[in-house]
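Translate sequence into structure tokens.
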Amino acid sequence: MTRSYDDVPIRPSNLAGPAPEFPWPHGMRAAMMLSFDIDAESAITSKDPSHADKLVSMSYGGYEARVGLPKVLELLRELDLKATFFTTGWAADAYPAMVESVLRDGHEVGHHGYHHLLPDPGSAHIEDELARGFEALAKHGVRPVGYRAPYGESCDELRTALKREGILYSSSWRDDVRPYRQILPDLTAGVVELPPSSCFDDWMHGLSTRFGARSIFPKEHVLSMWKDELDETRAWGAMVGTVLHPLVSGRPMRLRLLRNFLLYTIECRDVWIATGEQIARHFEACEAAGSTAP
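Result follows.
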């Protein structure tokens, strides 16, 4: 359907006001939502199902279960950290042991679609992606409370469905540095939004594939950027939301980079490193207590 610029509404795309101020727990100055996206080969086939026959291309995703995720989990055990792993239903069905290893270590598993399909407005697959994702995770006894949209996209149909399905929070929008409550088109309250930070998407800096050829940045460049972003976020009393991928950060140099950054964050001693559910529950508690202020 062809639309004209006359169809573009003259209003903010997000009806929610700026994120409210509220205290972080334990007297912390800032927060970090430590999160990873588990896509495996669905990151490759989501662009075109025919890519399933291109086995070297598929191997970029296959690295996740074979090497990347075990190395990331090992690092998190070493540092005694818990994280959220947004997992596609396809990855959960194809690699059940991978999901079980995440749960065994006490991490949160979130919903990340089924085939990692882009949830464009009006897409016929939005409801199916949601339902199949829930079904795949239910096989592991998981009813996720968190959702991260494939490709970080969203639309009103999806937001309304997330609320209907009892999702607590989304982590997809890029328009704030603190959590806030979404407002749906009918002006009712939606899910809590935990905005991720674009510069903490490791895919942008650390992976080059046939379908996404780009330069790979050295550790020193990325570590400097991540430290600067964290330091200013601490000064603002805000939140960092990572968008890390074990198929990227589970590679040798990238894992060293992640280790160095997490050690730096821990040494700051004023950053609450938490899962998405922990942060969303804290926001809800502050909201209910009336301790959030615009």
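Note: The chain has one domain: 28-46+55-289.
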